[in-house]
Design brief:
114 residues, mainly alpha, 0% strand, flat
């Protein structure tokens, strides 16, 4: 529950700060959006990679699967569904392609459309 509330507060705060910045510099909407998207992508990729490699070592563990698939889960399950395993496992090439398409192509299209 704490993480859910924190996410909502952070999301709302980011919109407030973005609107304030764009009011001061209305011509900088695209660079502001691109920077936010790039930072979010970088942090998400680092988190997913760390989770996939077991770097958190159960630090955020809850339930049977930990931070989402922590070291307490079956190693084959964790390595198949986290990064970099998702992109390296030949059985999941379609899933990896769909994740990459959604992450890169549709996000880029959304940002350009804005």
């Amino acid at each position: 529950d704490f993480w859910s509330v924190l996410q909502a507060v952070g999301f709302g705060t980011s919109f407030f700060i973005t609107e304030r910045m764009m009011a001061k510099e209305p011509t900088q909407a695209l660079p502001i959006t691109a920077t936010q998207c790039a930072v979010s992508a970088l942090l998400s990729a680092l988190w997913a990679l760390g989770d996939g490699l077991g770097a958190f070592n159960g630090m955020f563990e809850f339930g049977p699967y930990g931070s989402w698939l922590s070291t307490t889960a079956d190693e084959s399950l964790r390595s198949a569904f986290t990064l970099p395993g998702l992109f390296l496992n030949v059985d999941y090439t379609k899933v990896a392609a769909a994740a990459a398409f959604t992450g890169f192509i549709t996000t880029a299209g959304n940002r350009v459309g804005e």
